[in-house]
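Re: your question about Nicotinate-nucleotide--dimethylbenzimidazole phosphoribosyltransferase

S., sorry for the slow reply, the queue was backed up all week. Below is exactly what I fed in.
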Amino acid sequence: MRHIPVVLDGVIVGACALLAEMLAPGARSWWVAGHCSAEPAHAAALRALELSPLVDLGLRLGEGSGAVCAVPLLRGAIHCMTDMTTFDDVEVSGRLDAQDGIGPRFTTSEV
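Result:
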């Protein structure tokens, strides 16, 4: 079995995904709901699949427009998880605040 992530987009794809999950239980773990369309049936399908949409723009254009909006978010998330350094990687430790003489000189109540 291949484990290939799939971006779901729209009410028709949502209906197909419900059937696919019945035929291959667990397949939904590889799916991402790109968006929630304006059609009530799409929201119902996503609830049944226990998937949360990345965006809810009220689109009903079809043609994969919700997936087109979602893919840059997914790419950004992948970049954050795989390419960004951590504080440990760059040897950042401790906390800098106004008491150290570094940073802004105001308290949170002044913000």
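Residues 6-83 form one domain. The first helix runs from residue 11 to 23.

Happy to talk it through on Thursday.
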